[in-house]
Design a protein that fits this description.
Elements lengths: L2 H34 L2 H27 L13 H26 L9 H28 L2 H28 L4 H29 L6 H12 L5 E11 L2 E10 L5 H18 L3 E10 L6 H5 L14 H11 L13 E5 L2 E9 L8 H12 L9 E5 L2
Parallel strand pairs: 2-3, 5-6
Antiparallel strand pairs: 1-2, 4-5
């Protein structure tokens, strides 16, 4: 079973457990609210039943969000979870508005009963337990949707506290306390809904994660040997997972394979130290050349100086012509090009076994003399391979 499959299984199990309790508590509170004529308790029961709808949203979104990336969704499906969280917030606002409306348009006179108080206390205990259970699971798999649903459960517990206060007020002769409690319930739910929508809309428009976390990630990369000055870090969130782009500096003399190794090392180290990071794209710069976003933007429409030097195919074509008299014992395909300090160094590989003479020093000087005819670069070198 893959990690995503395990995460999906956890999310589904937690959501089903919460849905079962939401249904049972909702029915119980509506019945008890009707018997005691408590508008606040009925409203709280309706709120619990409305949780079944949001639980269904959460179940579907959690299942779809952790599907593997495909052709149409190369970054995965995590945004389904973010979008569902926004929908969840909108549903909560509708519920809060309905509760407040009913509070001001219902003339029933509530009565405080022992079974009404008992139902409220039971709700507080159960919903608080569900909150901790769901929140812990959400933190375990890094799901903001599950964490949002956990706070949704806690909103039930908080609203039930308000209902309890209303019933106590009614018991002491303050009939208006029930309506006031309903309004408090509506305000609590509305506040949580607005925060939920705001946070996830920010994620949908690719708002950068917490700057402190970005600095911690940069410090993690900077702690590695031969990796210097991580910069131009760009990050976005998807359902609490972070997708990261960053530039690093490596020694200018590093080979392509070494640069790739160092970029893999940076990705591994960051993801191990920061589990919320889902993906890291590393751009390798040499320590003598900084390629930043501002540098690239300054040269839109024109080639920056480093790119005005010839590419490999052009260099090999020029070498084939300039070194045509040495072609029999040169392995031009193994030529190494080093773009360092805004110039180009060409390193030629020659085969000693194919050399026309045993005097390799003389042949080297002859090759280097011809290399001086290249219209670009400097400090070209010849290396002999002994088979």
């Amino acid at each position: 079973m893959t990690v995503k499959q395990k995460e999906t299984q956890i999310a589904q199990r937690v959501t089903v457990v919460g849905a079962v309790w939401d249904g049972l508590l909702g029915i119980l509170k509506i019945i008890v609210g009707y018997l005691s004529q408590s508008q606040a308790l009925i409203a709280d029961g309706i709120h619990s039943l409305s949780d079944l709808v949001t639980d269904l949203f959460v179940y579907i979104a959690s299942t779809n969000a952790r599907q593997a990336p495909d052709k149409n969704h190369p970054y995965g499906h995590l945004r389904f979870e973010t979008l569902t969280t926004v929908i969840l917030g909108v549903v909560l606002i509708v519920v809060a508005t309905g509760i407040a409306f009913e509070a001001f348009n219902n003339d029933l006179q509530p009565t405080a009963t022992w079974y009404g108080v008992g139902a409220v206390i039971l709700t507080i205990l159960v919903k608080e337990a569900i909150f901790h259970y769901t929140k812990r699971a959400g933190e375990q798999i890094g799901s903001r949707l599950l964490i949002a649903n956990a706070w949704h459960s806690r909103s039930d517990a908080l609203s039930s506290l308000a209902v309890l206060a209303g019933l106590i007020g009614v018991y002491f002769g303050y009939a208006w306390a029930d309506k006031a409690a309903s309004v408090v319930v509506a305000l609590l739910i509305g506040k949580i809904a607005v925060e939920m929508i705001w946070e996830n809309l920010a994620e949908l428009v690719d708002t950068s994660p917490d700057p402190k976390l970005i600095e911690q990630i940069k410090s993690t990369a900077d702690s590695l040997k031969d990796v210097m000055a991580p910069h131009d870090v760009r990050a976005r969130s998807m359902a609490g997972k972070i997708f990261l782009d960053m530039h690093i500096h490596v020694p200018a003399t590093a080979s392509v394979s070494e640069g790739h190794y160092l970029s893999d090392l940076v990705e591994y180290t960051i993801r191990k130290a920061h589990p919320q990071v889902q993906d890291v794209m590393v751009h390798v710069d040499t320590n003598d050349h900084i390629q930043s976003d501002s540098y690239t933007n300054d040269h839109i429409g024109t080639r920056p100086p480093v790119l005005q030097m010839p590419a490999r195919h052009q260099v090999l074509a020029d070498l084939g012509f300039i070194l045509r008299t040495h072609r029999d014992y040169l392995d031009l395909e193994q030529t190494q090009l080093h773009y360092i300090n805004k110039t180009l160094h060409v390193h030629i590989v020659a085969c000693a076994s194919k050399a026309p003479s045993d005097n390799l020093n003389q042949l080297t000087r002859s090759i280097e003399m011809d290399l001086n005819n290249l219209p670009y670069g400097s400090d070209h070198k010849v290396f002999w391979r002994v088979n």
